[in-house]
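Chapter review: from sequence to fold.
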Amino acid sequence: MTDGSPLNLSWKRRMDEYARYLQQLEDAGVTVLLRPFHEMNQHVFWWGGRPGLTGSAGLYRMFHDYLEVEKGLSNIVWVWNVQDLPDNYGWADGDPKFDRYEGLEGGLAEYDAGDWSSFSPGKDYYDVLSVDFYDPEGYAARHYEQARSIARRDGKPMIIGETFVFPSRAEQAAQPDWTLAMPWGVRTWNHNTPEAMAEFYHHSIGAAGVPRLAARRNAIDALPRVSAEATSDAREPATDAVLTFVRPAHSAGEELTVRYAVRDDRDTRAGRDYAPLDGRVTFQAGRTTATETVRVLDRRGHSPAGRTVTVTLLPGRGYRASAPATATVRILPEG
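The token string follows.
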């Protein structure tokens, strides 16, 4: 993801190949549902298991900007995809697959694969939310509710991106916001009875009834999109928190200063719990990230456990705030 590095240049050559074929489709009037870096909350893929805008979501954003801004493609409907992984996935104590990272240079930090929002590229970077269903738990209500919450927050439709087992009529009635389900190849025949398949297709829209997707003709935003996230929390007496601000690689040629507002919760006060922030951060030329340290101050006596500091990007010249534009760090008591 470091612009101009040998690995980055190799990756751009690969993206050039993708763009060449996508351009052929655009020239033919074909709009594409593109689902890059699928199941990005799953660590077995080289692109997955790294939450945050400098992780898997950042790679998705870079791919998006390269195809749309650098290559000028406008026939892509962007699909962001996660999977219904078990609760212990991504944790060394409960996920046997995590052993592969032990002692590996660079390694992989433990993470919560069930926190789908931590893998979101932001609502400006995708058009459709998709969830793959393979866990034995099936179409659990909690997965549906999390998907619906994200989709409604971001104003997006939601689909079942991959599945072996078709949702039943009862499951479809209980979870009506799913708009599409894609069976995964020949295994569909191994996991569904002929009767279940017939019933699903009987109540679905056939190919002839599916509306044609029009080319989007995306208007390229001349202003770089800037987002913010909390990359670490603070802990008394001397562990500081870090806020990370992100901008696209194509806009990184010049220095850029962005402004933000600071809001404390009722138990937190600048100058007592943390050193005051000045409300602006500067991206150095050539850098796609900028960081702001929230320096913790040791609050003597009783320290409430739930203290937070929230920053929100403000409008300014030369950039546009893009979701996530708000980030919250916690200040944890000693111990």
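Two observations follow directly from the output. The radius of gyration is 22 Å. The chain has two domains: 6-209, 225-332.
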